[in-house]
């Protein structure tokens, strides 16, 4: 693309760095900003800047938060004996949108993938043991994407928690094997959570 304005060109370049945003889409966004009143653009950029500098990761579950502990973890109306283990923050959003789950979460930040150099040390796994041991958690729901890496992660976590008095369940396979949790429709995801099953149905724990 050839631009008559270096400022517009720079803005297009920055927008195109976002996932799924090509140069043409970025240009449409920039031109829309030019049509907006300056105060609206200042509000838009200010919100983005405040978000980037102000958002934290919850010290309990690693979800995004405006404070040290997120609103879900401090909500007395949630079931604090139940933790849903997910891969990413997007999975938390997906499950919350179903309005079928009222417990807490634990965001791993990924799943085990030795070929990609992702081991237990790169994920938020070690703190799960402490949460179960110290916080009275009686059920841990493994809501990881149903693929080989997800099942490997479930197996590893199950082995780490095998000596603790916690029931491990996994979401029902209404989601096809190899699929991504965040792309499941809300109805399928809600049913998968509601009809969760003992983890032994899917993972051999070697005589746990």
SSE map:
Layout: H1 6-15, H2 23-35, H3 38-54, E1 56-57, E2 64-65, H4 71-74, E3 79-86, H5 89-98, E4 103-107, H6 126-134, E5 139-142, H7 148-160, E6 167-170, H8 186-194, E7 197-198
Parallel strand pairs: 3-4, 3-5, 5-6
Antiparallel strand pairs: 1-2, 6-7
Provide structural commentary.
This protein has helices at residues 6-15, 23-35, 38-54, 71-74, 89-98, 126-134, 148-160, 186-194; strands at 56-57, 64-65, 79-86, 103-107, 139-142, 167-170, 197-198. The chain has two domains: 6-54, Helicase, Ruva Protein, domain 3, CATH 1.10.8.420; 73-201, Dna Topoisomerase Vi A Subunit, Chain: A, domain 2. The relative contact order is 0.10. It is built from eight helices and seven strands, in the order H-H-H-E-E-H-E-H-E-H-E-H-E-H-E. Helix 1 (6-15) crosses helix 2 (23-35). It is elongated. The longest helix is centred in the N-terminal third of the chain and has 17 residues, at 38-54. The mean pLDDT is 87. Helix 5 (89-98) links the parallel strand 3 and strand 4 (103-107). A five-stranded mixed beta sheet has the order 4-3-5-6-7. Helices cover 41% and strands 13% of the residues. It is of the alpha/beta class and 208 residues long.
């Amino acid at each position: 693309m050839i631009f008559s304005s270096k400022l517009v060109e720079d803005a297009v370049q920055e927008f195109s760095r976002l996932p799924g945003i090509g140069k043409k889409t970025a240009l449409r966004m920039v031109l829309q900003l030019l049509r907006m009143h300056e105060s609206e653009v200042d509000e838009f950029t200010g919100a983005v800047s405040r978000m980037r500098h102000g958002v934290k990761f919850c010290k309990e579950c690693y979800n995004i938060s405006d404070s040290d502990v997120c609103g879900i973890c401090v909500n007395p109306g949630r079931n604090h004996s139940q933790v849903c283990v997910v891969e990413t923050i997007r999975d938390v959003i997906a499950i919350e949108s179903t309005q079928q789950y009222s417990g807490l979460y634990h965001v791993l930040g990924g799943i085990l993938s030795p070929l990609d150099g992702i081991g237990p040390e790169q994920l938020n796994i070690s703190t799960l043991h402490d949460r179960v041991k110290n916080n009275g958690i009686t059920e841990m729901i493994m809501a990881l994407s149903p693929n080989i890496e997800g099942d490997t992660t479930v197996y590893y976590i199950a082995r780490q928690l095998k000596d603790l008095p916690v029931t491990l369940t996994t979401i029902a396979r209404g989601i096809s094997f190899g699929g991504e949790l965040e792309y499941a429709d809300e109805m399928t995801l809600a049913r998968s959570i509601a009809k969760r099953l003992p983890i032994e149905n899917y993972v051999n724990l070697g005589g746990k």
